[in-house]
Amino acid sequence: MTSELRAGLGPFKDEAIARGIPAEDVERWMDLARPCATLGEKGDGPVVGRFGGPLLLPVGTPHPFHPYVATIDFAALPAGTTDLPLPPDGHLLLFAYPEDYGHRESAGSAVYVPVGTPVEERDKEGWPWFEEDEEYQEVFAQFPQEQLRATADVSLPYHYWVAIPEEPRWVPLPGHPRSEELAEVWADTYEDITSQGHLQLGGYADQEAIDTDPVATVAWRAAQEAAAGRWGGDEPVSADPADWVLLAEWTPWIDGLEGATVHWSIQRTDLTARRLDRTFTSVYRNP
């Protein structure tokens, strides 16, 4: 973490110390900070993509099963905005439907379009179930349609437990016995530190009710789906959360689906290899 990022955590540090959390615990927690990009309509940062707009897919690519959400231009994203091994250029297309059906399978997908790839415009309403369900049509009509500006931000964990197979089943993050208190301080101060926007690249995952890391849940679900032969093909899929990163997070706030959060997560090795087709998507909703 750069000194600039650490300096931006001043309100968090001050509040944590004021609540009586020992300084050494606070400093160790701050060591976990990750850079991330907040993407929203407002702000002074560069335009790096948009919600909605034309759906431009590589020629011959099957139409994704889930609705089109946004396109990100990697070349427009300022260097160092995240600590992810993102491609230096090309476009990222994100797809998802923001409802939690309690299923294990991926609730969305991502498509990477390298520079120079021939593309064709597709019907954004071309997913299989669109014409058959008025509810889906009403929800999709509320998907945002706006440009996205990037603001460099810092992210700390919102979660504070890790799951273990034996009792007590959940324990504080390793090395951080005050993790629950520190995550609570972050939840109370992050709005004074970070920018406002409905899409985030990199950083830590959040959702309306959180105790364990949503990316850890993705790792477990992806490994289960791979073991059953329903996802991942013949390539290995790790169940270890340390092998996974948050690619993107969307908080849509759509009427009728309030409290939903979409997480696109990916194994770091797949991201490095530009295998963004191996992104696994989860949706959490607290109605």
Describe the structure.
With 287 residues, the protein is an alpha+beta fold. It has a single domain, classed as Hypothetical protein YwqG fold, CATH 2.30.320. It has helices spanning 3-7, 10-18, 23-30, 134-140, 179-189, 214-227, 268-272; strands at residues 34-40, 47-51, 55-58, 68-73, 91-96, 108-113, 119-122, 146-155, 161-163, 170-172, 199-202, 244-250, 260-267, 280-285. Helix 2 packs across helix 5 (179-189). The chain is globular, with a radius of gyration of 19 Å.
| Text of the CATH class | Mainly Beta
Radius of gyration: 19 Å
Query: What's the order of the H and E elements?
Result: HHHEEEEEEEHEEEHEHEEHE
Total helical segments:
7
Averaged pLDDT, please? 93
The residue fraction in helices comes out at 10-25%
**Share of β-strand residues:** 25-35%
Instruction: Report the sheet with the most strands, covering strand number, pairing sense and barrel closure.
Output: 10 strands, antiparallel
Side by side, the strands of the main sheet go 6-5-4-2-8-1-11-12-13-14
Structural category is: alpha+beta
Strands, count: 14
What is the end-to-end distance?
36 Å
Number of domains: 1
CATH level-3 fold name: Hypothetical protein YwqG fold
Question: In short, what is this structure?
Answer:
The protein has about 290 residues and is an alpha+beta fold.
Describe the secondary-structure layout.
Elements: H1 3-7, H2 10-18, H3 23-30, E1 34-40, E2 47-51, E3 55-58, E4 68-73, E5 91-96, E6 108-113, E7 119-122, H4 134-140, E8 146-155, E9 161-163, E10 170-172, H5 179-189, E11 199-202, H6 214-227, E12 244-250, E13 260-267, H7 268-272, E14 280-285
Antiparallel strand pairs: 1-8, 1-11, 2-4, 2-8, 3-7, 4-5, 5-6, 9-10, 11-12, 12-13, 13-14
Helix pairs in contact: 2-5
